[in-house]
Amino acid sequence: MMEMLPPSADILCTHPMFGPESGKHSWKDLPFVYDVVRVCNEERQKVVDDFVLIWELEQCSMVPMTSKEHDSFAASTQFITHTTGRMLAGLNLTSTPIDTKGYESLLGVIDTTIS
């Protein structure tokens, strides 16, 4: 991105680590990753700071992290979660009157990954 954008372009990379299902009731304590790659001057730094503050006020857990670190973590955690959710969804699992906590957790993986 640094090579593709002009030097005058600010770069703020963000990734809220939640989706419509996991964040539907609240964003409190849900991780929001951000990487301030380049800010060209103090005035624009204030815009970046204000952007981050908006999410802090929504009670997201703001996680400063390089994009490379994010990609490394997300490649494994998101892959296994979404793959597992899709495999479980293919089994057409449903809740029963005698669900264990473990089974409920598996149904939760489906709910948070399939929409």
From TrEMBL:
Signal peptide as annotated in the record: none
GO terms under biological process: tyrosine biosynthetic process
Domain TYRAAT2-like C-terminal positions: 87-114
Listed GO MF terms: arogenate dehydrogenase (NADP+) activity
Superkingdom of this protein's organism: Eukaryota
Gene3D superfamilies according to UniProt: NAD(P)-binding Rossmann-like Domain
InterPro entries: TYRAAT1/2 (IPR045011), TYRAAT2_C (IPR059064)
PANTHER family cross-referenced by the UniProt entry: AROGENATE DEHYDROGENASE 2, CHLOROPLASTIC, AROGENATE DEHYDROGENASE-RELATED
Protein name according to UniProt: TYRAAT2-like C-terminal domain-containing protein
Biological source species: Rhodosorus marinus
Lineage start: Eukaryota, Rhodophyta, Stylonematophyceae, Stylonematales, Stylonemataceae
